[in-house]
Amino acid sequence: MTDFNKYCQEAAEEELPDSEDEEDIGDEDTCSAQELAALFQHQYRPHDETGVSLQREYVLNLSADQGFTRIAAGLSSSAVHIYNLDAGAGKLANFSFLPPTDCPKPVSVCGVRFLDEGPHNVLVGTTDGYVRLYDLRLKGEQARFKYTQNEGIAPVPKSITCFDRNGNGRIICCGTEQFHNNSFLLFYDVRERRQMGVYCDSHEGDITSVRFHEQNPDLLATGSVDGLINIFDVKEADEDEALLNTFNTESSVGRLEWHKNVYDKDIISCITNTGDFKSYESEEGDEVASFERSYVTEAIRRKKAANFNLISAHNQEDGGVFLLAGTNFNKGEILRSVSVTSKKSLQPLANFQGNKQIVRDSLFDSKRGLLLTGGESGIVTVWTQESSGASVSSDKLKVKKEKKSRKQAPY
């Protein structure tokens, strides 16, 4: 038995329920296996997998370069693994390792992003308040961005919760937790390595997601636990003038993504921290779709919404949007997707068989139909549509061993 297989077996044994009460929280499908196969007509299996370490580290964030040839996986230890992806073969190969932050207190990654169109420059955001720039062709970090207090500005927290870079790689925006009744959006100029400014009046809770539009480098969407999604034109230095639109989800915003509808209009989607899905036209403000947690649970043909886990919303090559969802029951073995077909309708799409973990983040390459997932068992998985001999065998799972143990809470 390989070290990685032994690790997975030990983790599974540790997580077995030790009381009848815990067994009672079990979950099951709402239809037979034959009905599932008929409904979810696309079947996916793991084509390649790699474990990031033997230290029970979570994969919290995934990012791909524009060509989908290089993958960055950010961990709960604040380390980052870089992989080369042979998209044609669906295989991962270790390329580089960015060590964890040297900090006396526990620090985790709050985001990883490739800076530009190429596969070399990677930004890593960590909860100690820094965004670090690495050039994978060189040794060590190349720049470090952290907010410096300006006179007349309210105190800014020393930690950040999320970040993104804009479409041309010139600007970084970081979101912070609420601090002294203020939540901050911090801006940096990447090329000049300088602090640009701050927005601090548009959110009243921890900022949980910031997402620049991929084609329009000046368009920014932000979300917060206050339930608001704000759309900004960051060309404007004044926050009131920069604010273009606001949507109230009446929930707590967890994750934002940009999409296009059939009329080429910009859509912003939101996964809430309560497992609901909502989307809006960013300019007109009309609601495009809204699905409660219980409805999406039914759509993936599971019984208990309490175990439900809505992970990501992805763009398809034909312009459609699908939701990746699963359950937290039994190490997250259930992983399925449904397509958004109308404002109030979801259609079963794909079933992902052989999942070994609760998934925390995912990437989708619409041109090749590849899905990548990372999660709480520290595994990065490449999923491909099922064909004969396509699934990965257990003796080929890989793991990168670390010499130093860094056990800590994954948050």
Structure characteristics:
single chain, 5 helices, 411 residues
Describe this structure in words.
The protein is mainly beta. It has helices spanning 3-14, 20-23, 33-39, 239-242, 293-299, and strands at 42-51, 59-64, 70-75, 80-86, 91-98, 109-114, 121-126, 131-135, 141-145, 162-165, 171-175, 185-189, 194-199, 207-212, 219-224, 228-233, 243-248, 253-260, 266-272, 277-281, 287-291, 308-315, 321-327, 335-342, 345-352, 359-365, 370-375, 379-385, 398-399. The strands form six sheets. Strands 1, 22, 23, 24, 25, 26, 27, 28 and 29 form a nine-stranded mixed β-sheet that branches. A four-stranded antiparallel β-sheet has the order 2-3-4-5, with no helix packed on it. It has a four-stranded antiparallel β-sheet with strand order 6-7-8-9, with no helix packed on it. The protein is globular, with a radius of gyration of 21 Å. Mean pLDDT is 88; it is low at 1-24 and 388-411.
